[in-house]
Amino acid sequence: MQLPTNRFLASIRAGQPQIGLWLSLSSAFATEAVASSGFDWMLIDTEHSPNDLNSVMAQLQVLAAHPVTPIVRPDWNDAVLVKRLLDLGAPGLLFPMVQNPAEAEKAVAATRYPPHGIRGVSGCTRANAFGRMTDYFSRIGEETAVIVQVETRAAVEQSLEIGRVAGVDGVFFGPADIAADIGLLGKPTDPAVWELIRPAAQRLIKAGIPVGTLVFDPAFAKSLLGEGFSFVACGGDAVLLARGADGLIAKMRG
Question: For a 10 Å CB count at each end of the chain, is N or C smaller?
Fold first, then answer.
């Protein structure tokens, strides 16, 4: 038995745009409801949701039956948590609040076995089909997506250097936190936020480094893909549920 190719990684490396959806409801049942909707990747969030290891695993199991790549966001750049998420079989990780190249190097090291990193070794995990994958140890480094999230002005200014760290597969701009950092809390689509993000993103794109983000406006998300962004999430399960409920009751009472 062999390790499958990471479709998300292969696609962004080949310049094929990837459309994503955020998963925050922490429910395998809710994830199953959207799993076959046609998104290229889905982000299982543990930073801003009540997900734990068991709920993450259940969602990975659901998504394994569909042609969509799950990416998991750990709540911090924590090597112990990263080890556990990778052992569960997460095909990629989005590391929050990476501020500089040294922190990006730390993130990469957490995903790599010695001598290239510090990931602990277990021979029987869900990730390696409980020891059945004969090429797991030799290929998992190249098949694990390592995406680092820049979320402050200082990080955006260093984003090219962060993106050039060996083993980093892409740089993700977090507009909500960038907005907060520059005094625009709650205004992630403010022009000033994107005047900061866009030039940094274009420098990365010109250097051949994939860039991504999350915006809750499909038209804006589509325009970013047109500007060369490689992977863009355009919505979230919790937002779809909440706004759908708001819209339904508004129609009934209106």
Answer: C
Element (H, E) at 226: helix 218-226
H or E element in which residue 197 lies = helix 191-206
Cα–Cα distance measured from residue 35 to residue 226, given in angstroms and rounded to the nearest whole number: 25
> Model pTM greater than 0.90?
yes
Residue 72 burial (10 A CB sphere; 0-12, 13-18, 19+): buried
Selecting among 48, 84, 139, 198, the annotated active-site residue is 48
CB within 8 Å of 22: residues ≥ 6 apart: 42, 43, 45, 214, 233, 235, 236, 237, 238, 239
Q: Are 7 and 67 in contact (CB under 8 A)?
A: yes
Q: Does 48 participate in catalysis according to the annotation? A: yes
**Domains of the chain, earliest start first:** 7-253 (3.20.20.60)
Write the pLDDT tens digit of every residue in 132-168: 999 999 999 999 999 999 999 999 999 999 999 999 9
Per the DSSP assignment, residues forming a β-bridge with 23 are: 44
CA atoms within 13 A on the CB side of 136: 19
- Encoded tokens for 102: 């040294």
